[in-house]
Amino acid sequence: MNITRISLWHVPLTSHTAYYMAEGKTCDTVESVVLALDTDTGLTGWGEVCPIPHYLPAYARGVVPAVEVMAPVLLGADPVGPEAVMAKLDHWLQGHAYAKSAIDIALWDLTAQAAGLPLHALLGGQRQVDMPLYHSITCIAPWEMARIAREAQETGITQFQVKLGADRDWQADVARLRMVREAVGNGPMVYGDWNCGATSLDALRVGRAVADLDIMLEQPCATIEDCARVRAACGLPMKLDENAFDTASLLAGHAAGVMDAVAIKLSKFGGLSASRRARDLCLHLGARMCIEDTWGSDITTAALLHLGAATDPLRLMNVCDLASYVSPRLDPSGPARRNGRIAPPEGSGLGVSPDREGLGAPAAVIE
Length: 367
Description:
Cofactor: Mg(2+)
Keywords: Magnesium, Metal-binding
CATH superfamily of the largest domain: Enolase-like C-terminal domain
Number of domains: 2
CATH architecture of the largest domain: Alpha-Beta Barrel
Radius of gyration: 20 Å
Order of helices and strands: EEEHHHEEHEHEHEHEHEHHEHEEEHE
Helix content: 25-40%
Family: Belongs to the mandelate racemase/muconate lactonizing enzyme family.
Distance between the termini: 15 Å
Shape: globular
Largest sheet: 8 strands, parallel
Oligomer: single chain
Strand content: 15-25%
Number of strands: 15
Strand order of the largest sheet: 5-6-7-8-9-10-11-12
GO molecular function: catalytic activity; magnesium ion binding
Domain Mandelate racemase/muconate lactonizing enzyme C-terminal: 142-237
């Protein structure tokens, strides 16, 4: 089997609810890049990457040029054995992990299809039938966030990510955490996420003000060192997100004591190959994992669900059904949440099949 064609599309994904985060970051309408690798056997592998503007070192309109540079390595290559192909791409073009993420997902899709197996069978084997979801709550008025949390809880959700810092008011952030915690009662997981947007001073004031509650903090500051100071001063558990993107950063976060939980986002690490290695390291380090991605629709969601399904349930904190937050759906028959949980798609490979005609005219076709 050999890759004969690379096609890419720019697809605007519109959030059902605008998501407001610290430092003016938002998810409203965000451009996703969809990639298809066609082969001489008739099989097609699908990949997707959707960078949030101003969030991480990734740019949606940078994907096509990066793929054009990597095309000489991809065209004619046997996609079976994604890590070997990705090693060649890393030698050909250093960095650009986000652009490589879509390629890597498509390579795994093709490999699993060729084997006639669901993707999770190649990522460690299915460890669980379905997985717990968290619900991300946009940073708006505290009472509105509490209402959203109650509504999500009624659908079976037991984990709640509370966005903080959009109005730079630490006392409002305290109210957000307290009101959501009260709304969902004791037991469900509640964690406040600044997306690196807080100073250590503001994060400390919030952390100390809610230290009597069952709350976790997520990546309050832009550096591991500042996050560690907040963790040490308020005593609350902490989840690492933006600063976790490779082996060295995972080891640094663990050593600093700020990785009670960690977000393994596919595009941060460069796809499923690197994310699987990160998953295995976290199993050794003992961190709970949220396996997800920055943003996206059905292709990204399917990829992360297969990796989640192949992960030890004791270490998997949650996954994210990104496709449920946006429209259009790339594959309307893709997986959907049920009673606060979600299962990976069935069938071989990723198990999703986007409609090419529905994607519109490609941004690039490379043969």
